Amino acid sequence: DSGGNFSTLAALQNATAIGAYAQVQESNAIVLGSVDTPTLVGIGTTVPLNTFSVSPLNYNTGTASQTSGSSTITGSGTTWTSAMVGDEMIFADGSEETITGYTSATSLTGSSTSISESGAYYRLHHIGLQVTSAGNVGIGTASPTSTLTVNGAVNIKTPTDSTTAFQIQDSSGSNVLTVDTTNENITIGSGSSGESSPKLLILDSSTSSTDPTEINGAIYYNSSMNSFRCGQDGVWRSCLGGLAFANTSVAAGDTVSQTGTSGGPTAFSDGYTVPANDCQPGRVYKITASGVMTTSAGVYLDFYVYMGTTEIGGSSGGPGAVTNAPWRISFDITCDTTGSSGTVEGQGINDMAYSSANNVMTELGMDNTSAITVNTTTSNKISIEFSWLTGSSTTVTVTMRQLIVESLGP
């Protein structure tokens, strides 16, 4: 106490105060240095870097030289290594700096250019444990920026397995992460018990249109492909293959009624937009569409599957005079290659009832005979379209009541 307001108590036992202005007020205690005057305490070092520094000796063989104006340290009889980068170097006269680079067994780079030494004795110290005047603790760093900052490899081992061997909690004491070494699992948040505001596990996101090197069991999100990616069996695949779209109501644009001798192609309003770069080689879009139609005799009705503005497959048939007769399309689009001139294949069937009386379906093929060029780097809407042709003016009404799109594969 430099102000003289505190003093060592007379009735203490086994108590020692060491250093200028040091006072002790608790039995069985040792106090090092003043409390209100900055005091640096060092263990294993003659130049403590912080309020408390434990910096074990690492190396002191040979001598070292450094020229003022240069950060190069030259050794004589030394076998320096790259592992010494980050160490504190203390010369015999008390000059001190941090090793920032390694060149050879006799050449290091220091943090100072104002030190001048010639064939001087020195010591290299591990940074070790540091406690700053702000109360921050550093391990392997002299400048911790948080309550605990660690610079180096960390190994945490519990002597006895526990369901709460390691936990990270928020300020209210709610678990954010729990490591259970008894059952060997890691839980984010409260796990299966649930909570109203769940903790989120956020994976790294790639902005590249290509995947990184695959590792089996790895997962990440690719924002360029708009795809949650999983490493499986040597390749990256979409983690979320399955239902991509299903309409839950019949939109106004899903019923089209036209009068004349021909019409179309006309697209129903519902459809699934394939994100840019989502059509990767091996990915399959399974399309199921169905509805009803009302036509007169002599009408030829054509159905098409489009991807963007490109027809992938179509069929043609003459259902005749029918009222609210069913139709159905089952169609697969397979992605072959990617790019502005990417390619896909399409195969499927179109069933139409040629009679309202018994709704017996006639099956029509919807095939393409070669690869079809599609720009996979842009988004493309998968849609169902139809056109019709007849010899005399009539009214044709077609409704698409269901559209289901599944996205499967990579």
Strand content: over 45%
Give a quick account of the main beta sheet: strands, pairing sense, barrel closure.
11 strands, antiparallel
CA distance, first residue to last residue: 71 Å
According to DSSP, the number of beta strands is 33
Which runs of at least 5 residues are low in confidence (pLDDT < 50)? none
- CA radius of gyration: 38 Å
Nearest-integer average pLDDT = 92
Number of contiguous helices: 0
Overall 3D form: elongated
User: Structural class, please?
Assistant: mainly beta
Range of helix content = under 10%
Brief description of this entry?
The chain has 410 residues and is an all-beta fold. The chain has strands spanning 15-18, 29-32, 41-43, 52-54, 57-59, 63-66, 72-76, 88-91, 96-104, 107-110, 117-120, 122-125, 129-131, 137-139, 148-150, 166-169, 175-180, 185-188, 205-206, 219-222, 227-232, 235-238, 242-246, 255-267, 272-274, 284-295, 300-307, 310-317, 322-337, 342-353, 361-367, 372-374, 380-408.
How are the SSEs placed, and which strands pair?
Blueprint: E1 15-18, E2 29-32, E3 41-43, E4 52-54, E5 57-59, E6 63-66, E7 72-76, E8 88-91, E9 96-104, E10 107-110, E11 117-120, E12 122-125, E13 129-131, E14 137-139, E15 148-150, E16 166-169, E17 175-180, E18 185-188, E19 205-206, E20 219-222, E21 227-232, E22 235-238, E23 242-246, E24 255-267, E25 272-274, E26 284-295, E27 300-307, E28 310-317, E29 322-337, E30 342-353, E31 361-367, E32 372-374, E33 380-408
Parallel strand pairs: 1-2, 3-4, 14-15, 19-20
Antiparallel strand pairs: 4-13, 5-12, 6-7, 6-11, 7-10, 8-9, 8-12, 9-10, 13-14, 16-17, 17-18, 20-21, 21-22, 23-33, 24-33, 25-33, 26-29, 26-33, 27-28, 27-33, 29-30, 30-31, 30-32
